[in-house]
Design brief:
About 45% of the residues lie in helices and about 15% in strands. The protein is built from eight helices and six strands; from the N terminus they run αββααβαβααββαα. Bound molecules: iron/sulfur cluster.
Length: about 190
């Protein structure tokens, strides 16, 4: 990975004013962990705690995610975690198509510099950003290994969905375990 390019991209993202979310954010949440990592986790957008701290997945959903990661043998610091949208949509609204169009090039640039081999896409917005084929619900595409060029993508539910519906926890745990076995087997 080219560290200088990565730093330039981070510098650009931290000053980004390409969409109206720049007016209400406290911090741009570029990502955390190790961008050299083979495995990246990509979620939707920062929530209020993430906006406060400038870090992804540090609120309630993040604690839940940490539990799934630890259970399946992953250390959070040795992965890279980011979101499709880098600034918080007010009131945790769904990101608009325009916001996604403006922000997605940052994620694309991150992926082209970091070149992860595996991506766990958390939730619908991450899946829509990464998986080119149409789908109606996460149920249709989760728990599969989707090969996209050099990257293997597994889609699962967002931990925030598990907070709303704890029964999804078993499924997310299964999908993260699947990713763990996939990496261990290669
Ligand atoms: S959400 Fe993305 S495109 Fe919009 S201001 Fe933040 S970094 Fe820029």
């Amino acid at each position: 990975m080219n560290e200088n390019l990565w730093k330039e991209l981070e510098h650009f993202a931290l000053g980004c004013t390409a969409c109206e979310l720049c007016k209400t954010r406290k911090n741009v949440v570029f990502g955390s962990g190790d961008p050299f990592s083979r495995l990246w986790l990509i979620g939707e957008a920062p929530g209020s705690t993430e906006d406060e701290k400038g870090l992804p997945f540090v609120g309630q959903a993040g604690s839940l995610l940490d539990g799934f990661l630890t259970k399946n043998g992953f250390k959070r610091d040795s992965l890279f975690i980011t979101n499709v949208i880098k600034c918080r949509p007010p009131n945790n609204a769904d990101p608009t198509d325009e916001q996604k169009d403006q922000c997605f090039p940052i994620l694309t640039a991150q992926l082209s510099i970091g070149k992860p081999k595996y991506v766990l896409a958390l939730g619908r917005h991450a899946a829509e950003a990464l998986v080119p084929r149409p789908f109606k619900s996460i149920k249709e595409i989760r728990g599969q290994i989707i090969q996209l060029d050099e990257v293997k993508v597994v889609v699962t539910y967002h931990p925030a969905a598990v907070l709303r519906n704890p029964r999804l926890g078993e499924i997310v745990d299964h999908d993260i375990q699947m990713m763990s076995k996939l990496i261990a087997g290669e």
